[in-house]
Amino acid sequence: MANRLLMLRRLKQFVPLPFRTRLKWLGYAWQDLTGGAREARVPPKRKTFIGGGDFIKIGDAFFGTLKRHGLSPAMDVLDVGCGQGRMARPMTEFLTGRYEGFDIDGSGIEWCKSQYKDVANFTFHRVDVFNARYNKTGKTAAKDYRFPFEDNSFDRVFLTSVFTHMFKDDVANYLSEISRVLKPGGKCLVTWFLLDEMSRQSQHPVLQFDFEVDDVSRTTVKSNPEAAIAFDLEFVRGLYKQFGLSIKDIEHGKWGRPDSRYDLQDMVIGIKPL
Ligand SMILES: C[S@@+](CC[C@H](N)C(=O)[O-])C[C@H]1O[C@@H](n2cnc3c(N)ncnc32)[C@H](O)[C@@H]1O
Questions:
Q1: What integer pLDDT is reported at residue 7 of this predicted model?
Q2: I want to staple 209 with a disulfide (CB 3.0 to 4.6 A). Which of 36, 88, 140, 218 is the partner?
């Protein structure tokens, strides 16, 4: 499997990007055509912009993680960078508290609004924050953005595969906002690519953070750093401390630890002290 991915990666270099994009789209369109009926709230593969992988399996697995870390039905949750509702979908039958999701991509939010209109406790917001990959015309910088919620309003805040596309000043501001909107005792579950002694040696076939972005972060694509960004673990620890969050646990993912029993990315579980 790893060899196949490595071979594909090498081959990719010889195929121009617009042609690759077209090919990928055709592959997805074929899957949509031949894949049979789609489950409710699962977007067509050709319209999915949040990355490959199985939409249902990934969402269900993260729901399991949330429950493992104490999610209960009456809690209020915030999904930052909610995309196309991959993490929201499995929660609809479970959550009686409030679900709020926001994202900078308008098409994902429109999709979620149309799919969840019969779920009264689920709300989706589009926010106009800049990101070179997801919202090139965004008016507000992520480093200056204030989440549209009151202080101390959520039991859980989570971000899956969002800080992996943001720069250091942006993640610093978002962590301070997470700390502000979490209730005392509330938890934040955030995925990262964390650089430590072990993950720096990672032989992952695709996630090679070869290029320096700044003193604390690296990227896989020099010309398009937001494609995937990894941060020094010590920098991340420092941020949590700075914003009054204590790190309860770090679940290192498979990208940097091939034998990990967790998902691809690393997950930091933080708590706002009581
Ligand atoms: C790889 S997708 C993951 C989506 C979703 N969290 C999931 O796991 O299905 C990354 C998402 O982060 C969103 N995003 C990027 N920068 C953001 C920001 N500054 N604020 C909120 N969302 C952001 C993108 O629009 C995109 O939907």
A1: 62
A2: 218
